[in-house]
Amino acid sequence: MKGRRPAVDDSAVLIEGPWQHRFVDANGVRFHVVEMGSGPLILLLHGFPEFWWTWQHQIPALAEAGYRVAAVDLRGYGASDKPPDGYDVYTMASDITGLIRALGERDAVVVGHDLGGTLGFAAAGFHPRSFRRLVVLSSAHPLRQRAALAVDPRGQLSASRHLLAFQLPRYEHVVTRDDAAMVASLMRHWAGHAWRDTPEFHRYVRACRDAIQLPQAAFCALEAYRWALRNVLRVSGRRYVKLLQEPLKVPTLQLHGERDRCVLPRTAQGSGRYVAANYEWRVLKDIGHFPQLESPNLVTAEILRWCKELSPCTTRAELVQPDGMVVSRRRPEVIDRSSDDDSSRTDTGRRVLWRELGAGLGVLTPIDLDPVVHGCDAVPPNEVV
Q1: Residues 145-174: pLDDT tens digits?
Q2: Of 215, 226, 222, 227, nearest in space to 82 by CA
Q3: Angle formed at CA 51 by CA 290 and CA 37, multiple of 5 degrees
Q4: Which residues, listed in sequence order, are joined to residue 253 by a DSSP beta bridge?
Q5: Average per-residue pLDDT in the chain?
Q6: What is d(CA 320, CA 327) in angstroms, rounded to the nearest whole number?
Q7: Which of 71, 148, 183, 288 could bond 55 through an S-S bridge, CB–CB 3.0 to 4.6 Å?
Q8: How far apart are CA 93 and CA 207, in angstroms?
Q9: In the chain, where do the E strands start and end?
């Protein structure tokens, strides 16, 4: 048909550069990995609806700093295999640890954005020995995200309407309709104002639109979100929540754009309650959902700082940095969940808890809905830390 774009194949995501493309077998799947440099391993995980190219600025910069950098296309994305199943968090978390071993390493610094950050939180909880450190961008701890969907209908639930639409059968055809126009619309809505009017933004969106139109890519991308919702009340979902309630023992840095309209800052800021190791929360001023692209030098510098920072934090303080970042830092401490007492909660907390439990969210425990941040000072829900 006249004017119709040709079919997309894997060559669309095999973008040439100073890096090397290779394919690695891990956890029963062949993954496409872009690799550069030598030294300790840094594994980069992208989000939806992207592919490895989201790390185009970080790959050479981290490699030049003395690290072996591997940016992977997640299961079902880009040039990686697209099996019909295996999009549950257990399997995708095992993909991460399997990749680390397949690359010949025992552990790695894992950096995840969006979905990659969610998987990073889960994999670090399930397999902490495979993680030296964790860096999470534009994502919340899975239990924090789940609680926000329940108690913040005008905020995070409204911002996540696309996730509810993803539950509809055959919705992948809507995602790819009109040359994946929905992908362009979502990315424009999520991006920071300054970046979305640049030629780089339009080039990157074009690449993501092509990548999501690879055969079966849209279906596979939506399956992970479908699993998350349909397993809420199943045994596997309850087991998932129980595992994630264990305090994370991996030092974690969390970077979040102040203007993120996909995962709201007030949703992500409470994720530190689930981390017992070193933890830092940093808000990036005037940045949207894609900090690694909107402010690549700053993100690269933060990743390198976190890789090299070995001493634990001795104090917790909120600091305004010269570059405009707002920092919340906490030294490692053990979160004693056995000491939580319903009598110490506010009446509002009780009403929220029982209202949501009555709505069928029985997998959420009181600690998940409590507005108090354990191990940190309480923060008003509408205040950016």
Answers
A1: 999 999 999 999 999 999 999 999 999 999
A2: 215
A3: 90
A4: 135, 280
A5: 84
A6: 6
A7: 71
A8: 26
A9: 20-26, 29-36, 41-45, 68-72, 108-113, 131-137, 252-257, 279-284, 318-320, 326-330
Longest dimension (CA), the chain: 69
Residue limits of CATH 3.40.50.1820 in the chain: 15-161+228-335
pLDDT, greater one: 354 or 48: 48
| pLDDT above 80 (res 366) | no
As a whole number, mean pLDDT of residues 237-242 equals: 88
Query: Which CATH class, in words, describes the domain spanning 15-161+228-335?
Result: alpha beta
115-126 and 235-244 helices, crossing angle to 10°:
80
Q: Is the pLDDT of residue 305 over 60?
A: yes
Nearest to 326 by CA among 260, 251, 246, 383: 383
Measured in degrees and rounded to the nearest 5, phi and psi for residue 257 equal -70, 135
Question: CA geometry: angle at 51 spanning 48 and 54, to 5°?
Answer: 95
Model pLDDT, residue 329: 67
Q: What is the pLDDT of residue 335?
A: 34
Q: How far apart are CA 242 and CA 255, in angstroms?
A: 26
Q: Distance from CA of residue 338 to its chain's centroid?
A: 29
pLDDT band at 236 (very low <50, low <70, confident <90, very high): confident
Q: What is the 3-state secondary structure (H, E, C) of 144-171?
A: HHHHHHHHCHHHHHHHCHHHHHCCCCCC
Task: Determine the angle formed by the axes of helices 172-190 and 199-212, rounding to 10 degrees.
Answer: 160
Structure tokens at 154: 């005008």
The reply to whether omega before 49 is within 30° of 0 (cis) is yes
CA distance 2 to 95: 42
For residues 340 and 188, give the distance between their C-alpha atoms in angstroms, rounded to a whole number. Answer: 42
| Ramachandran area for residue 303 (φ above 0: left; ψ -120 to 50: alpha; else beta) | alpha
The reported pTM is: 0.84
Query: From CA 44, how far away is CA 84, in angstroms rounded?
Result: 24
